[in-house]
Specification:
The protein is mainly beta. It has a single domain, classed as Sandwich (Jelly Rolls). Helix content is 8%, strand content 39%. The longest helix has 9 residues. The two termini are 32 Å apart. The C terminus is likely disordered.
């Protein structure tokens, strides 16, 4: 492998040089939205793509960096905005960087013991996820995609299971003129460290 470069105009979702494309449909986020009745209702009327990940395949070893685009489409399940599944890294001591290229959104983050933070996305804004924190991208727009460029150590891995079992401590909900944060009644410390 030799060094390489590529163009990434702001806001574009080009496919080159990305060689991996993952689509996450509503059905793959089972249990992640608080309003399960509305979730089931939407699912009966179709299985829309909630978000996509385009990435460059890199060896999963120390010294390599994985990177790509996360594209969260606009939409809501009840009052909750479309979002990614969210994950910890399997190697907890690894960080991640997100650079917002297009759209308006937020990165919801949470530590293993339940401390939390939310950073807003807007074009040009960069968010650093410190080691040991789970993270989830949320599209706060009703009209356009949230597009972010991400970079993380290739050996970091993804732990989705912890989030699937306990959820995030906070919900990001739509309200007139913006969004609000609310405690997630289903959040549990249980399982916080079971997938380290």
């Amino acid at each position: 492998m030799r060094p390489f470069g590529f163009e990434m105009p702001a806001g574009e979702c080009q496919t080159d040089p990305y060689d991996s494309h993952i689509e996450r449909r509503l059905s793959s986020l089972s249990g992640q939205f608080f309003n399960q009745g509305e979730y089931e209702n939407l699912l009966r009327n179709g299985d829309p793509v909630v978000y996509e990940v385009r990435s460059m395949e890199r060896p999963e070893q120390e010294g390599e960096l994985s990177f790509g685009l996360s594209i969260v489409h606009p939409g809501r399940v009840g009052d909750e905005y479309y979002m990614t599944k969210g994950h910890f890294h399997q190697v907890r001591e690894t960080a991640e960087i997100y650079h917002c290229l297009r759209g308006i959104g937020a990165l919801l983050m949470e530590s293993g013991d339940g401390d939390w933070a939310l950073e807003e996305f807007r074009p040009g804004r960069v968010v650093y996820v410190v080691p040991g924190w789970a993270h989830r991208s949320i599209n706060l727009s009703e009209q356009e995609d949230l597009v972010t460029f991400f970079v993380y150590p290739s050996h970091a891995g993804h732990d989705y299971a912890t989030i699937e079992s306990r959820g995030f401590r906070k919900l990001v909900l739509h309200e007139a003129g913006g969004y609000k944060l609310a405690d997630n009644p289903r959040w549990s410390r249980a399982g916080a460290e079971c997938h380290v």
